[in-house]
Write a structure and sequence with these properties.
Number of domains: 2
Largest sheet: 4 strands, mixed
Number of strands: 10
Structural class: mainly beta
Strand content: 25-35%
Radius of gyration: 18 Å
Shape: flat
Bound molecules: zinc ion
Strand order of the largest sheet: 7-6-5-10
Order of helices and strands: EEEEEEEEEE
Distance between the termini: 40 Å
Helix content: under 10%
Length: about 100
């Protein structure tokens, strides 16, 4: 295998060999518990990015550290929210990087 990647929320492994062949492995007898996510602060509230539905529902502060189901109605993925949060920092003025040793 040249590269292997775990599925973000299912017990599946994807791999590519040196000939470019793609392999999908179902991991048997492995049952995931709730997916652990770190909520982030946004617009004065808390949210998380669900790996299943790709939505970012708002969550209440008192749910930190708890196991919940994704708040998106059609999703319901079991999620454990970390007790800590991160803060999203948006940089508006970033020049394109030219590599590790860019000239100034
Ligand atoms: Zn979801």
């Amino acid at each position: 295998m040249e590269e292997m990647t775990l599925h973000p929320y299912l017990p599946q492994l994807t791999g590519v060999d040196s000939n470019g062949n793609l392999y999908l492995h179902q991991l048997k007898n492995i049952h995931y518990g709730p997916i652990i996510l770190t909520p982030y602060e946004i617009n004065g509230g808390l949210s998380y990015l669900c790996p299943a539905c790709q939505k970012s529902p708002i969550v209440k502060q008192q749910l930190l550290g708890q196991v919940i189901q994704c708040a998106t109605e059609s999703c319901g993925l079991p999620i454990k929210l970390n007790a800590f949060t991160t803060q999203v920092v948006v940089k508006t003025e970033e020049k394109p990087k030219r590599g590790l040793f860019s000239k100034r």
